[in-house]
Design brief:
By secondary structure, this protein is of the alpha/beta class. Helices cover about 30% and strands about 25% of the residues. The protein contains 23 helices and 33 strands. Strands 14-15-13-16-17-12-18 form a seven-stranded parallel β-sheet, with helices on both faces. A hairpin with a 4-residue loop joins β3 and β4. It is globular, with a radius of gyration of 31 Å.
């Protein structure tokens, strides 16, 4: 009997391993590594999905093994390189095999299952309480029930064990209707089923000129879609169906891929590089041909033309018969890059990001996997694109925290990209005007070369930056979020018919709304935070869980109409702009205005064509945007992230301000930027105003050395979550004691401080409390063994029921 090793979807981390299953005779020769299957799992033999990862050599003991129930894929959906990448991720991210394998597949390839039980016969005698309760739900009139119905109607007593017993006794049969979430899109094609003379003879009997036109159009032996044929001849669908029934026409189906519309994309010539760009390009280009894994940092000021260097490198890779992946941090940047790269490389481009429909992402995946697309552009998840011959990965704005996944598996796209270039002997290019401290630290230590662009493209000067001190403006009677200096600058820009971008990384109307009489503020019932007021729908909304309540204009506690708001958001600023500049055309770009499909692209197009004067937005307006007429950029609240509970707060503030300031004056007009703050003397803001990354890096590195945080020391955070705070805290205390105990014994060679447990900055989210343990320790095999062991042990301990723990490397929030 042949045996295969399978990663099972239903396996939790505590029991996650490769499970052996017998390959039944009908599937032998068909089942391959990388195919998905349906297998029985657990005591109840519940049918669950799995992925075949190994075919065991013959001669295995099969006496206790179960058999594969069903093969779900006609051909493998993952290759050996992707499987090795998934194994690497599992070892470092402390999650299950199947979770990591699923990262590689588009959601359209996942399965929808409808599990059904059908009545065979009723028992002659009583079977016992839980079995009889299930059988009572089946009658001659209702001989079929879904698994969900059975579990609901029996209050959960229809367990896998119970249903398995009824199956084995022959009372019920199990059927699983499995369908892929996204199917191949096809188009109905028509052609002649007989020769032209025979077809004419058949239609001439009815003397139908329309049918004769159909035969005439198809007389050259070609095929035409039913839609086109109806348009050309006026034949209705009913007429064409009749011609098929009479044997005049025959039907076939052709696949149609759902792709972005590129009909409006203009051709883009090969870039002409400046002297400085050419030097950087030549240095990086040399790394493409070393036949070993390489990495490089392209460090250039905003507007220095890093994208032109990317274009040239990608052109070389594609000309050499290899494939490339271009990663961007925000969906909002993708349309600009897609138009640019499609204009240069045409149909060779495929797009992967969450803004596409499930079908569009599935079709892009198929084009990449089949080798029809050679350049992939997308956000974080595009790093897993199944390119056939990887030569280059470009990580644009590599410092952006959007590359870090916040859901399990908690991977960082930069780490995955490094692993992929190691597997393929390819090149990774990390580009930024504000590299992550860890990335620049690695470059300074000689891990990879740095190529610098000191000047803007075409010699355009950097914007003139003003740090505007807001202290005292409120006392002077100016109560707008937009300060007096900013107001005057916007007014001048409108008079010159030039555009303005305003940045405020806070959506909604006001972060705080409350009653000035009794002190009431709307608090989220599921999270330990207050709700944010959104004036567009008149509701206070929790930005963690989405809970909301209606704001009527009266306090629900004391019924006072005297409500106050604090900490303005983008909606409030939009209202202020309409009040201060009644004739100005204002656009707002944040998560609320870009939730619909193609909303990013539409807003960008409106602004690029000059149909708006002011663009106000969150961080999606801070990076990568390139507009000819933008000469003024305003940072409305530079202090917002400066004092966050995060060791990366200074770095993130510096990067955001530097990036958004760089949106101004990118062509032949002098740009200007205004940074509003209540701390004008802060050195982080002054470095950002000068775009002086190197001074900021030296200052920040000294601070990191004092704090013993990355890149000086690696950190691992263990987070425990549960619905009862006392259970979470006690479980984390036991976990800490266990870790310290292991460091005294089995892991005596691995002794490092364990800090905590401490509550998260927002301790309760979606009804679950969160506490952290932090380990300052290097990332090596011993650490992986320790953490994997204690997480497995923790999840098996009955004392920890109701509490889950996950691990995260070098987290942002402490």
């Amino acid at each position: 009997m042949q045996v295969c090793a399978i990663a099972v979807q239903a396996a939790t981390y505590a029991i996650d391993k490769l499970y052996d299953y017998i390959i039944p005779e009908p599937l032998q020769g068909q089942l391959q590594v990388g195919c998905r299957v349906l297998v029985p799992f657990g005591r109840g033999n519940r049918k669950v999905e799995g992925m075949v990862l190994l075919l065991r050599p013959e001669g295995q003991d099969t006496t206790k093994l179960k058999a594969v129930v069903q093969l779900l894929d006609a051909a493998p959906v993952l290759d050996s390189e992707q499987i090795r990448l998934a194994v690497w991720l599992k070892e470092r991210l402390y999650c299950t095999f199947f979770d990591c394998l699923r990262l590689m597949l588009p959601s359209g390839l996942w399965f929808r299952r409808n599990e059904v039980y059908r009545l065979v016969r009723q028992p002659d005698n009583p079977l016992g309480a839980p079995l009889d309760a299930v059988m009572a739900l089946f009658t001659d009139d209702r001989s079929e029930r879904t698994l969900e119905e059975l579990q609901t109607l029996t209050n959960g007593r229809a367990t896998g064990v119970v249903l398995s017993q009824l199956e084995e006794a022959g009372y019920l049969t199990y059927h699983s209707n499995i369908a892929q979430k996204s199917q191949d899109k096809t188009e109905k094609m028509l052609s002649l089923a007989v020769d032209v003379q025979a077809a004419m003879a058949k239609v001439s009997r009815g003397r139908s000129p329309t049918q004769m036109d159909v035969v005439s159009i198809l007389s050259d032996g070609g095929t035409m879609s039913q839609k086109e044929l109806s348009y050309m001849t006026g034949a209705s669908d009913a007429v064409l169906r009749g011609m098929v029934r009479r044997g005049v026409l025959q039907v076939s189906y052709e696949e149609r891929l759902r792709m972005p519309d590129d009909t409006q994309v203009e051709a883009v010539p090969s870039p002409v590089l400046s002297v400085e760009q050419q030097e950087a390009y030549q240095g990086i280009h040399a790394l493409l041909h070393t036949q070993k894994p390489e990495a490089a940092l392209l460090f250039g000021v905003t507007g220095s033309g890093k994208t032109q260097v990317y274009l040239k490198l990608i052109e070389d890779v594609l000309d050499g018969g290899q494939d490339a992946i271009m990663l961007v941090p925000e969906i909002g940047l993708t349309p600009q890059f897609v138009r640019l790269f499609m204009g240069r490389f045409g149909d060779a481009v495929a797009v992967l990001h969450s803004g596409l429909s499930v079908g569009e992402r599935y079709d892009s995946w198929k084009r990449i996997r089949s080798g029809r697309a050679h350049l992939v552009i997308g956000t974080r998840s595009a790093v897993f694109a199944p390119v056939q011959n990887l030569g280059l990965i470009v990580l644009d704005e590599e410092q952006d925290n959007a590359y870090q996944s916040e859901q399990s598996p908690r991977y960082h796209a930069r780490d995955v990209a490094k692993r992929r270039v190691q597997q393929a002997n390819a090149l990774l290019v990390m580009g930024s005007a504000t590299p992550a401290i860890e990335t620049y630290y690695g470059a300074m230590r000689g891990k990879y070369p740095v190529f610098e662009l000191f000047e803007r493209y075409h010699g355009v000067p950097l914007p003139q930056v003003t740090i505007d001190d807001l202290r005292g403006q409120g006392r002077a009677g100016w109560n707008y979020t937009i300060g007096r200096t900013m107001h005057q600058a916007i007014e001048q820009n409108l008079m010159k018919d030039e555009q303005t971008i305003l940045f405020l990384n806070r959506r909604g109307n006001s972060r705080v709304i409350g009653c000035s009489m009794c002190g009431w503020v709307p608090e989220c019932p599921s999270c330990s935070t207050t709700m944010t007021y959104h004036s567009v729908n008149g509701r206070a909304i929790c930005h963690f869980c989405g809970a909301s309540m209606k704001i009527t204009g009266q306090c629900p506690e004391c019924y006072s109409p005297h409500l106050f708001t604090e900490c303005a958001g983008t909606q409030k600023v939009e209202e202020e702009l309409h009040e201060l500049f009644p004739t100005a055309r204002v656009l707002r770009m944040d998560a609320d205005t870009t939730s619909k499909k193609n909303a990013h692209d539409h807003l960008m197009e409106v602004f690029a064509k000059g149909r708006a004067d002011i663009l106000i937005g969150t961080q999606m307006v801070a990076k990568g945007l390139d507009f000819d007429r933008v000469t003024l950029v305003g940072v409305l609240d530079a202090d917002q992230s400066l004092f966050a509970q995060d060791y990366r707060a200074h770095e993130r503030t510096f990067a955001l301000i530097t990036q958004v300031v760089g949106r101004a004056g990118r062509r032949d007009r002098q740009g200007r930027a205004i940074i509003q703050t209540y701390h004008p003397e802060d050195v982080v803001l002054s470095c950002a105003a000068r775009q002086d990354y190197k001074q900021f890096y030296q200052m920040e590195l000294e601070r990191r050395q004092a704090l013993l945080v990355p890149p000086i020391q690696q950190m691992l955070m263990l987070t425990g979550t549960g619905e009862q705070e006392n259970l979470v805290l006690s479980a984390m205390l036991r976990l800490k004691e266990r870790i310290l105990g292991l460091m005294q014994g089995q892991f005596a060679d691995f002794k490092y401080p364990v800090l905590g447990p401490t509550p998260a900055s927002v301790v309760r989210v979606m009804g679950r409390y969160r506490y952290h343990l932090i380990l300052r320790c290097p990332d090596n095999k011993r650490r992986r063994q320790l953490i994997a062991g204690i997480l497995t042990e923790f999840s098996r301990d009955k004392q920890n029921r109701g509490v889950t723990v996950f691990a995260e490397l070098n987290p942002d929030m402490l």
